[in-house]
């Protein structure tokens, strides 16, 4: 189980968990922040561990 404040291996930090439904079955929307470019974005909770920054190509 992921806690707010932890970072995945791609440097994406979990900022906040919402109760909003994600676009995958059973997923919730989580707010993540990239430790490289500081961008904040929404992601499916189920993708957190594998998630890369949406700006990854521009890093
Ligand atoms: Zn980034």
The gist of it:
This protein has 59 residues and is mainly beta.
Task: Characterise this structure.
The protein has 59 residues and is mainly beta. The protein has one domain. It contains no helices and 3 strands. The protein has a 3-stranded antiparallel beta sheet with strand order 1-2-3, with no helix packed on it. It starts with 11 loop residues before the first strand and ends in a 15-residue tail after the last strand. The mean pLDDT is 97. Zinc ion is lined by residues 34, 36-37, 39, 53, 55, 59.
Bound molecules: zinc ion
Mean pLDDT: 97
H-E string:
EEE
Q: What would you call the structural class?
A: mainly beta
Strand order of the largest sheet: 1-2-3
Total helices: the number is 0
What is the share of helical residues? under 10%
For the terminal residues, how far apart are their CA atoms? 28 Å
Runs in which pLDDT lies below 50 for 5 or more consecutive residues are none
Q: Provide the domain count.
A: 1
Q: Please provide the count of β strands.
A: 3
Strand content: 35-45%
Largest β-sheet summary:
3 strands, antiparallel
- Give the C-alpha Rg: 11 Å
Shape: globular
Helix-strand layout with pairing:
Layout: E1 12-21, E2 28-34, E3 40-44
Antiparallel strand pairs: 1-2, 2-3
The structure holds zinc ion.
Zinc ion (ZN) binds next to loops.
């Amino acid at each position: 189980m992921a806690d707010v404040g932890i970072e995945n291996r791609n440097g994406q930090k979990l900022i906040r968990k919402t109760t909003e439904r994600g676009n995958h079955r059973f997923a919730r929307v989580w707010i993540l922040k990239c430790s490289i470019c500081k961008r904040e974005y929404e992601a499916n909770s189920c993708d957190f561990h594998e998630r890369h920054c949406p700006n990854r190509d521009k890093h």
